[in-house]
Design goal:
This protein is of the alpha/beta class and 274 residues long. It is built from 10 helices and 10 strands. 33% of the residues lie in helices and 19% in strands.
């Protein structure tokens, strides 16, 4: 319900029971997964979909232009959107990956390791450079790795110059060092800047970033196709679609690196079949 003095945001288009409007971050769109799943959803359900994506999907939803939001669980707006009543409880649907990138020569010999902690330990022991990516979640993961690896002395190998995201990766490329970053933005940015880096560790569980769907609350925002959003959520959580997520490759990469995350929801919510 609305609080005193509050009004529902205006809806951008009239409700259409045959249309489900999705607002998403860029990762699952540029990573190729969401468009493929929406195409198969249309074939299976007969429902049409529209998709807007970018850094602020929750703003799109607040403006009455979405029925379902898909974002990382840790997106800066997820908690406020749900706690203020604009969205239903988040449902974990899949996970994308960070990657540990490094020079093709791989001086620390970490290629293909299943343990990110062991990879970090070998980088420290070898003296090969590691550039700290200061984007919030990635810096946090670096701190975890440092503690888990036994808190090695931060000598010349540990390069923390305040860089984040693309700047941190560019610095690692120039210095022949290792760095953590998302696979999707790396693939996007390397099209305009040929980084001298390659993904070396991608399968470690610590690299996963959980993504969620948030159904928009029709009691707070007019024109929401709540039934259509529920059908799409159920589809995304169905066992067959969760299995398909395992085999969807990243563009430009041979391996499939998306992980199904439906099992993290309460069991009674999960569909048993499509």
């Amino acid at each position: 319900m609305l609080h005193a003095g509050e009004q529902k945001p205006p809806t951008a288009e009239a409700k259409d029971a045959g249309l489900v409007r999705i607002a998403s971050v860029s990762t699952d769109v540029e990573g190729g997964l969401l468009p493929a799943l929406l195409e198969s959803f249309h074939t299976t359900s007969g429902l049409r979909t529209t998709l807007q994506f970018g850094n602020d999907p929750y703003t799109v939803a607040r403006n009455g232009q979405a029925d379902l939001v898909i974002s990382h669980f840790g997106h800066r707006d997820t908690e406020s959107f749900v706690s203020l009543g604009f969205g239903r409880w988040p449902r974990t649907i899949f996970a994308n990956q960070l990657g540990l990138f490094g020079p093709p020569s791989d001086p620390a010999k970490v290629r293909g390791l299943g343990s990110l902690v062991q990879a970090f330990r070998q980088i420290a022991q070898s003296g090969a450079g590691y550039v700290v990516n200061r984007s919030q979640g990635t810096r946090y993961l670096t701190d975890i790795l440092w503690h888990a690896a036994g808190r090695p002395e931060k000598g010349d190998w540990y390069i923390d110059n305040g860089n984040s995201r693309r700047d941190a990766v560019a610095a690692a490329s120039r210095q022949g060092a290792y760095v953590l970053w998302g696979l999707t933005p790396f693939q996007r940015e390397r099209q305009t800047e040929p980084f001298s880096l390659t993904p070396l560790v991608t399968a470690a569980p610590l690299l996963q970033r959980i993504m969620v769907s948030v159904a928009v609350n029709p009691e707070r925002i007019d024109g929401v196709n709540a039934a259509g959003a529920a059908r799409l959520e159920e589809y995304l959580l169905s066992p067959a679609v969760q299995a398909r997520i395992l085999t969807t490759p990243y563009p430009g990469m041979e391996q499939a690196l998306w992980s199904p995350a439906g099992r993290h929801n309460a069991g009674e919510y999960l569909p048993q079949s499509i």
